[in-house]
Amino acid sequence: MTPLANVLIVGAGPTGLVLALWLTRQGVAVRIVDKASGPGATSRAMVVHARTLELYRQLDLDAAVIAAGHRAPALHLWAKGRQRATLSFGSAGQELTPYPFVLVFPQDKHERLLVERLKALGVEVQWQTECLGFEDFGDHVVVQLRSADGSEQRCEAAYIAGCDGARSVVRHALGTDFAGGTYEKYFYVADVQASGPTANGDVNAALNQADFVLWLGYDDQGRGRLIGVADDNSEHAESLAFDDVGHRALASVGLQVAKVHWFSTYRVHHRVADHYRRGRAFLVGDAAHIHSPVGGQGMNTGIGDAINLAWKLAGVLRQGAPDALLDSYEAERRAFALTLVETTDRAFTFITAGGRLADFVRTQIAPRLASLAYGVGAVREYAFRLLSQTMIRYRDSPISAGQAGAVHGGDRLPWVRAADNYGPLAAIAWQVHVYGTARSDLVAWCAAQRIALHQFDFGPPYAAAGLLRNAAYLIRPDSYVACADVDGNPATLQALLSRCTGHAPVT
């Protein structure tokens, strides 16, 4: 048998690669395998949202990803040939995140960057290595692998993480239900060179009588991604070419395609696994949930899964945290996936519904309401929070507690633009933030626990962000607030920390 690896990761897409990066950075040995011959050669997922970039900052990845991608500063909504509403990401998100934009970064380039970063840390992806199944022995797993030459081997690991997509071998081995359904309509994706008023660096969405197209520019010179309705129920939809699909929505916004670099059709599914964990096996990313492409949420959600799981696995394997900490992965991420699938399902159904009434609402009523709503600052901010995933929170999690100001345990730590209080979050570790003055016993407790204490001079920007003067905020390694305490009492923080680490107070 091969030497023990603490975590064996099946699947080297963005989800599996980020899981490997986070675990490696925290000192956890990993082995990552994929049956493909190398990183993907097509663009597939395109959008990197603000919350993902915030988490990438902890890996020192944000700058490299932004430099390689294209910032889309706004979303324009079109209906029947007219631009009806615009959401400026900058004006909506500039007080919420260091990354007030949507980043367009094709998945193939994204994967290659992650592979290179992982290699720099000494971990090579084992390509052309297929997972055939595994057995859970209670204190470890044994995974059956097959190499490119057909030879098979059995590999031991402390845990296995299935990051192997919608047809996950790990999920099938677990026997976990993947409830949901499949929409009737086919969609297409195409990488093209185009011209016209919408072939710019912004995001443009056009609605035209159950025809739909979304434009994501790779640059400002007309190279970009199209996503649109291919066909209703055609048995031959999978063999369609770009010239075969409806172009009404394209024509309505004056978008003219000069060259098609890549084209594919697909069916849209919406499913969530009934369990994300069984014993020593975990489902992550598309292996655990799939949904419509509305909002570009899929890859970002998988990356969020990976980071949520990584610090908990590291806590158990490296710091002696209790096994129960790993149960919070399913509690937190599955709850979010269920909400996300419901939200994207409603949006997808609205976009693709047929009939005169649906067409009228979609092309006449909805754009007018959107235009009015986008004029209200609170609505713009809400829309940006929803799209950017900065709204994700875990208030009902078993490892969240307390409230101080508007911030609850389980919330994403609010970003304060005036001082950039996210700087300390580059450390993937527990830490305490106090906006004001920390109590002397809290200072002593942090020193005894070897937890970094960061104090910020309180002022109006912190109050505007919902933070409370002199309160204590215990921050998890993934930058979410674990515990918020009005009084800054170390005993309150200790109670939550003990639940996560299993360690008794240091006296």
From TrEMBL:
FAD-binding domain location: 6-343
Gene Ontology MF terms: monooxygenase activity
Essential cofactor(s): FAD
Keywords for this protein: FAD, Flavoprotein, Monooxygenase, Oxidoreductase
Top-level taxon: Bacteria
Gene3D superfamilies with a match to the protein in the record: 3.30.70.2450, 3.40.30.120, FAD/NAD(P)-binding domain
Keyword Oxidoreductase: yes
Protein name per its UniProtKB record: FAD-dependent monooxygenase
The organism of origin for this protein: Acidovorax bellezanensis
